[in-house]
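Batch 3, record 17
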Amino acid sequence: MRRVLTIAQMAFTETVRDKILYSILVFALAMIGSSTILVTLSVGGEGRIVKDLGLACITLFGLFISVFIGINLVSREIERRTIFSLLSKPVRRAEFLVGKFLGLGLTLAVNLGIMAAGLMVLAWALEDHWTPRILLAVGFTFVELLVLTATAILFSTFSTPTLSAIYTLLVFVIGRLSADLMAFAAQFGGASLRATAVGLYYLLPNLSRFNVSGAVVNDLPLDAGTLALTAIYGVLYAAAVLAVAVAVFQRRDFR
Amino acid sequence: MSGSGRTQTAPPARAFPERLTQVVALAIAGAALAGALLASREIPPQAVRSETPQPIFFPRVEIVRPALLGFVGLAADLTWIRTVQYFGSRIEGKERFPQLYQLVDMTTSLDPHFLDAYQYGALFLTIARQYPNAIAIYRKGIAANPSAWQLPHDLGRLYFLELQDYQQALHWWEITDRLPGRPHYIPRFLIRLQAKVGRLETALELWQQMFRQSENEAVREIARREIQKLREEMQRTQAGNPSR
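Prediction for the assembled complex:
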């Protein structure tokens, strides 16, 4: 466990030194701030415009961080040949991958925290009261991004960084569409298409489950049991994907 | 080549053409930019922005929704801003609003819990004198948000002020009265409406109840005056119709 935490700490240090992270963060904060301009164009709904845009920015820029940094975590070690010296030490490949995942998870948590704080202050300035439920929406975005980070790491264990980024972004799109995919197959498809859609529905992550922004922005009630199950689903799914990544990485030949 | 043993370096004479290339490139960039700016100033305004309002294309929400990848709230906000701009840009010219209903409908279909869009959207439609459309938006909002007092309240106001349909106003304010968070003046409005639609005895009873229950002296004074007025009106009605 200590080795995993050491690698996680190293991965965190490595990612926070990455200039791309800062450019994404600055751009995200600028986008969240720009919602105040949009507000001036509206009549009513000012608070919700800021929250909607802010939460969308947090999701999208969080996605960029998890994909573009996640795909490089493993491939960069291979490219620079540093993986040889690392794995020649008493470090298991599984520990290496889990450590990398936790390190990027911590980076994501810090970045999402900064963006959420910016959004909360902006919403407070506009509405004159705090909206702590923003943290709930950001929390579920974090779980969604953990699933995508694990997916990015999985792809990067056997593919090139560019392809890994494309695959992970596709998983995001399909994951967000999975409920619609099911409905589409039920409405139009034949038996084989329906079976494929059902298979994909259960195999791919149902990312729409993590999207509670609508309920948060409109101040609608949320069921605590459902939220807990959703969080458990996300953590278990990320663990499963990471386990597959470990299995693939275990067989990888670095020659 | 290497037989001579001399190392090959770029001749110093090449430095000048490289610098010259840089200077020429920058000069071309400056000239092109200046030309582009001049050309853009010469473009007549109508080529930049059409004076004739362009019709807005409305895709079906069922088709658009999946393509939004869960960012429906944001799409609703942007459609709402478009609605406000559409209304604002035409109201000064006293133009008609042929696509206002579609815009409000699209916004509220994207996010059925966007209360401000229902409220202001229906208000815009009321200002545009599209009363059936305004009523349709209110009813859609009430169906999607049954616990929001604002929508039946505003619909009651539309019936009361614009259409002078007091029975309908009474109906919607009675619904408002049952919802949490409704304004404190709704019970008083209701009683006055009861009287207005001819239910004088019910109105009298309700005012008397308010007079007894209220601890606020101003409200008690209002109730006392209303009771007095109602009694006088009832006496007049009885005097004018002795058979009853």
